[in-house]
């Protein structure tokens, strides 16, 4: 951002608007001050300057600083063209107190500005007896720690535009600062001997717009063979203490580690040794953090010098004086995802890359391409499942501040595998005692997070358990012919139509795969039920968000799930150059078709355990590929175990495309007997074959006789009316004829596709002749 043109150049501070105050000595030895605008990349030619005398001269004491160091920091809660009539100045003394001065200024003789009543400046004592303080320039907050009965108490003061301030909270921290000396953070960039104040202790507070509050702490190291550091996730109610052993201890080790604020992540960095990326929003599982050691590209990109973290992701290289903006690199994360052998690093790199991209189609395409080639690369978690859940989460994350509490960001609930090179201890911590009654902005979000920690047992994360139960009920009702009100089912199917429409709207190019082109009522029911349940879930927990916005968030989320599944199938379809004729049963499956069948099977496994919907047409395409690629016994095993779901569309195509060779007859019959009764009867009527006639006849007879009550019969059998003289069959057909006549009288408009007693007689004779080998 700012490079050292002069050897004496030093960055003094970074202001709230991002401008950089710096100083250097020119060729003549004059001290030059400058203000650099990072947006225009230009030096400002004019800025407001206030000179305040800090040493007593002629007994006029303005700001006293004789035997101690002092630091000063102007307050300006708002950046505006019309400055306040008075300036507010924080004075921090090495004597462990902080005061706020109110400096009234007046303009005289044109541009000349002087201090009014310079002999007596109004002041407020902000804090005293503190041992550590940090200034948050961008948010105008002062954090400090004082010691009460040897306990470290963290406090925060928020300064406002209307010249007031509030103590916002206080919280005890389980850290020892009694012998650590005096430490200031972000009160300008200090190039003096830091050992005078820090004694190798590192402590800083990081926040972000989601309401997170993290305290990062690294105690004085007794030995460089082992490093220990802690992160207090105040907004989550627990802390994590990490311990790692250093390799190559004999090499040069810098004095202390650096904590960097990267918004959703906090980075812990020891140059040349390790880089630890900690997930702030979801810190529960260690696999969502990225721990890198030794020679690594991401470590090599960082300066190998002590760093100072400033506001706005700015980082100061304390050796060279250069100022950097630290950003996570998508390309490096993708490269790590592709090259690492550890499941924990794959998990962390995947989540971090998706956070950086947040729905970017190019990034998703690159990840899908890699997953397609490495679908079995992870043993600790399902790669497809994790990608679908995480990417869908990030697609709607920014819609509301509470999304991290309502939707799962990961499919993994527990992680028991150790991370190589690091050990971890997790402890519950006390929650902050809030000192104000009403909250706005960041403080409202922090308070919401704290309330969630207190009262959200169990957690609010959505799951499809209710959808699973209701879906099975609807399918059972369909099989028995007893379904609840048509309006209820119609409303569910209307939800599915909205999802499909939303999905089609985000599809930017032509699709080669035949997805979303058939009805598939079961998947539409599942889709519609998920819309209904997720909408109710959001309405319960998102108070104050309008219903229309919630409905759109639900549609966007479910559409994203389906879009990602379509994208994976489409990517593999194009990769293997498959064409439309693949959908016909005219040849054995190729290696390319088997590859697509395999990836679709893995998609099915990933969605089944979470009970997620699939795009209509998925099961049909999957079954067609399965018939072409699998031997019959494997195919039937997949059908019986639920891996392949026989859809009406797939079976109709199979019956029409395949001729009646002995092999195909065996396949067709094996398929028909596994179909649900209603679909099976319909399919049998499409297959002109004695076997299908036999099945149709059996079903017809079963339907006629299910309520039949035997009655005395006096009529003699008229043999001339039967084509074959076989008394048992003749008697049976006569009974069926009488029942049909009775039914026709009672239900004259009921038809059965021309299936009658005569059809049954013919089918029975053909079947008998076949059994006798005639």
UniProtKB/TrEMBL annotation:
Superkingdom field: Eukaryota
GO molecular function, one term: amyloid-beta binding
A GO cellular component entry from the record: trans-Golgi network
Bilayer-crossing regions: none
Record-linked InterPro entries: GSAP_C_dom, GSAP_fam
Gamma-secretase-activating protein C-terminal domain span: 564-669
GO annotation, biological process: positive regulation of amyloid-beta formation; regulation of proteolysis
PANTHER family: GAMMA-SECRETASE-ACTIVATING PROTEIN
Name the UniProt record assigns to this protein: Gamma-secretase activating protein
Native organism taxonomy: Eukaryota, Metazoa, Chordata, Craniata, Vertebrata
Gene: GSAP
């Amino acid at each position: 951002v700012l490079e050292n043109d002069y050897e004496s150049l030093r960055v003094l501070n970074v202001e709230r608007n991002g401008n950089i105050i710096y100083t250097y000595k020119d060729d003549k030895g004059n001290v030059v001050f400058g203000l650099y605008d990072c947006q225009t990349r230009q030096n400002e030619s004019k800025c407001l300057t206030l000179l305040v005398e800090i040493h007593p001269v002629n007994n006029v004491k303005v700001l006293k600083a004789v035997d101690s160091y002092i630091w000063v920091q102007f307050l300006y809660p708002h950046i505006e063209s019309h400055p306040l009539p008075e300036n507010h100045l924080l004075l921090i003394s090495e004597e462990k107190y902080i005061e706020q001065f109110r400096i009234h200024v007046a303009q005289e003789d044109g541009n000349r500005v002087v201090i009014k009543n310079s002999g007596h400046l109004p002041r407020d004592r902000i804090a005293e007896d503190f041992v550590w303080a940090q200034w948050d320039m961008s948010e105008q907050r002062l954090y400090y720690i004082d010691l009460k009965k040897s306990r470290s108490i963290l406090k925060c003061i928020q300064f406002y535009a209307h010249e007031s301030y509030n103590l916002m909270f206080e919280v005890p921290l389980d850290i020892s600062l009694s012998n650590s000396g005096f430490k200031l953070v972000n009160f300008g960039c200090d190039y003096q001997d830091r050992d005078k104040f820090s004694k190798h202790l590192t402590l800083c507070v990081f926040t972000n717009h989601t309401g997170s509050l993290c305290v990062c702490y690294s105690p004085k190291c007794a030995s460089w063979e082992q490093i220990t550091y802690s992160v207090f996730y105040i907004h989550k109610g627990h802390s994590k203490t990490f311990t790692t052993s250093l390799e190559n201890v004999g090499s040069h080790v810098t004095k202390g580690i650096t904590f960097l604020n990267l918004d959703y992540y906090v980075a812990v960095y020891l140059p040349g040794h390790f880089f630890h990326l900690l997930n702030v929003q979801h810190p529960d599982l260690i696999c969502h953090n990225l721990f890198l050691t030794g020679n690594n590209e991401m470590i090599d990109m960082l300066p190998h010098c002590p760093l100072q973290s400033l506001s706005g992701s700015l980082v100061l290289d304390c050796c060279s004086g250069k100022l950097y903006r630290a950003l996570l690199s998508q390309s490096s994360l993708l490269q790590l995802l592709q090259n690492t052998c550890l499941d924990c690093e794959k998990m962390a790199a995947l989540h971090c890359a998706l956070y950086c991209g947040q729905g970017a189609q190019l990034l998703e395409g690159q990840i899908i391409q890699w997953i397609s080639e490495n679908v079995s690369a992870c043993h600790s978690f399902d790669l497809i499942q994790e990608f679908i859940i995480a990417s869908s989460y990030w697609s709607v994350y920014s819609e509301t501040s509470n999304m991290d509490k309502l939707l799962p960001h990961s499919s993994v609930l527990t992680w028991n595998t150790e991370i190589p090179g690091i050990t971890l201890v997790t402890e519950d911590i006390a929650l902050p005692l809030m000192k104000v009654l009403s909250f706005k902005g960041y403080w409202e979000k922090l308070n919401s997070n704290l309330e969630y920690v207190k009262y959200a047992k169990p957690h609010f994360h959505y799951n499809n358990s209710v959808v699973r139960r209701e879906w099975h009920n609807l399918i059972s009702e369909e099989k028995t012919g007893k379904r609840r009100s048509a309006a209820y089912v119609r409303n569910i199917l209307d939800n599915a139509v909205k999802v499909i429409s939303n999905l089609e709207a985000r599809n930017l190019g032509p699709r080669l795969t035949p997805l979303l082109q058939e009805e598939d009522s079961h998947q539409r029911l599942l889709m519609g039920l998920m819309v209904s349940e997720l909408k109710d879930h959001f309405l319960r927990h998102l108070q104050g968000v309008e219903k229309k916005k919630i409905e759109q968030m639900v549609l966007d989320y479910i559409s994203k799930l389906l879009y990602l599944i379509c994208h994976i199938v489409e990517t593999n379809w194009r990769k293997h150059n498959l064409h439309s004729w693949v959908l016909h049963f005219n040849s054995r499956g190729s290696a390319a078709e088997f590859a697509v069948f395999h990836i679709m099977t893995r998609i099915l496994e990933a969605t089944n355990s979470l009970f997620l919907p699939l795009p209509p047409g998925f099961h049909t395409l999957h079954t067609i590929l399965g018939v072409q690629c699998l031997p019959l016994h494997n195919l039937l095993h997949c059908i019986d175990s639920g891996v392949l779901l026989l859809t009406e569309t797939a079976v109709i195509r199979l019956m029409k495309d395949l001729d009646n060779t002995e092999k195909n007859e065996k396949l067709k019959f094996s398929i028909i007997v596994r179909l649900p009764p209603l679909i099976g009867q319909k399919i049998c009527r499409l297959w002109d074959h004695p076997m299908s006639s036999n099945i149709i006849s059996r079903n017809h007879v079963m339907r006629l006789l299910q309520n039949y009550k035997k009655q005395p019969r006096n009529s003699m059998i008229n043999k001339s009316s039967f084509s074959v003289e076989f008394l048992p069959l003749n008697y049976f057909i006569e009974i069926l004829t009488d029942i049909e006549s009775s039914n026709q009288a009672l239900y004259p408009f009921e038809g059965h596709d021309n299936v009658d007693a005569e059809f049954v007689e013919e089918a029975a004779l053909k079947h008998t002749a076949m059994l006798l080998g005639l």
